Amino acid sequence: MRKNSKNLRPIMRNLLSWIRSVALILLASTLFAAGNPTVTIYNSNLGLVQESRTLELKKGRQQIAVTDVAAKIQPATVHLQGGTQANFSLLEQNFQYDLVNTAKLFDKYIGEKINVVTEQTGSIFGNLLSRDGSILTIQSRDGSLRLINTDHILEYSLPSLPEGLILKPTLQWILESQESGAQDVELSYLTSGMSWEAEYILQLTEDDESGVLSSWITLENNAGATFENATVKLIAGDIHRAQKGGRGPQPQAMEMAAMARDQVSERGIFEYHLYEIGFPTTLYQNAIKQVTFRDPTEINYDRKYTFEHSERQSVQQENVSVDIVFDNTEENNLGMPLPEGIVRLMQEDEDGKEVLVGEDNINHTPKDEEIRVTAGRAFDIIGDRRVTNYERRGQSSDQMSVEIELRNHKDEAVTINVLEHFYGDWEILKETHPSTPKDANTLQFTPEVPADGSVTITYTIQRNR
Questions:
Q1: CA 411 from chain center: how many Å?
Q2: Which bin fits 452, alpha (ψ -120 to 50), beta or left (φ > 0)?
Q3: Using one digit for the tens of pLDDT, what is the confidence trace for 375-416?
């Protein structure tokens, strides 16, 4: 294309003329009024679009073209349904997505005569033989071949725009109507490129007794269409689907929208949960929208330390892990199904500025269940585990003695959950601290380690494999 505005005018006039002619054709064949859509978004790169529309039909067979649909529509899922008084039949459906761009224009003109103007050689007229990336091969009148880089073209002239190129993804139907007049229909289809997730922020306090939980819903629309004033529903749950495609391009914009807690309704559907935004909102193409899921809520939580051993390690030394644990109950100002998402843990420093102290993913969590968020590893608490003795007792039995030293360099006492995992049948022969079987394969110790002190646990176990 031409880099000088004066030389761009001829081609822009041709292109604008073609656009106007296409618009007139679509206007004559579409006459398709749309209502506000309902968009149901899943966690799995999927959206369900449902729209009420009105067709102005003529008696007999006719073509209807609809351009304002998602570019990533799944054509096989398109469903057009008339009401109880439907007086038409759907005979054929096509989805056209061969959109206009410079590369496709040249591809359509291979074998045709074109004229290009370059920076170095001026006007070149001839047959376009091929396009290989940014290189055009043109055969001049004298039979010579010219290889031209499209980056050096100032202007190109094409005799007429080819058939089959469109400006927008287009659904095209052939209908047979029994009579003329307006007909109300429901259009629905699935599209990829849409997803949502929950994001939570838990503001921790120094006393480790209560904090403030805030939550957002993040909506991503990369489906290739804008849905104006849409009713938005969100499905939380893992539906089973055949594997198709990947995620779309990354969003290019972000929009923030606040909403009060009582404007999010939740209800069950099949084996999942559905959340509905309580007001119409516009989902812009290639954009992120965030809305408040729940108003900030004060909740109680516990900080828990865990030292967990690996079966195959005879020596293990590491900082213990830190978890923040709270209950999703009404008594804890929660008590509603919480969709999966990221929980970010924040805490104020001495200057009153919030600092990120950890983040973790949580799964879909029903009400009255515990939520555990792994923050990271405690800098000042070390677990040191070693096998001090090991003896084989026949082909399927052994005896093992273990020593675990817990060192606390904090200026306050801490309780640490020590988890020891075993396989097969096992029996504790002796131990220095009381233990509790957590399950068939796990033994748990819960010693309190004094401030700036240490505790050493020893035990001997016999295992039959």
A1: 43
A2: left
A3: 999 999 999 999 999 998 877 888 999 999 999 999 999 999
Measured at the alpha carbon of residue 274, what is the angle toward residues 239 and 229, in degrees to the nearest 5? 110
Look-up of token digits 């830190």: 322
pTM of the entire predicted model: 0.70
Contact 45, 194 (CB under 8 A): yes
pLDDT of residue 347: 94
CA-CA distance, 258 to 279, in Å (whole number)?
A: 11
420: Cα within 13 Å, side-chain hemisphere: 27
Tokens of 217: 């819903």
Residue 305, classified by CB atoms within 10 Å of its CB into exposed (0-12), middle (13-18) or buried (19+), is: buried
For tokens 């074109």, the residue is 114
For the record, the structure tokens of 241 come out as 């689907």
Structure tokens at 384: 């040191």
The token pair at 109 is 């003109």
Give every residue of the chain whose pLDDT is below 50, as ranges: 1-8, 10-12, 15-31, 245-262
The pLDDT value given to residue 389: 92
User: d(Cα 297, Cα 313) in Å, to the nearest integer?
Assistant: 43
Q: How far apart are CA 48 and CA 73, in angstroms?
A: 10
CB atoms within 10 A of CB 260: 10
* Pairing mode, strands 88-96 and 194-204: unpaired
Secondary structure (3-state) at 393: coil
> Which residue type is seen at 172?
Q
- Of 206, 145, 181, 164, whose CA–CA distance to 60 is shortest? 181
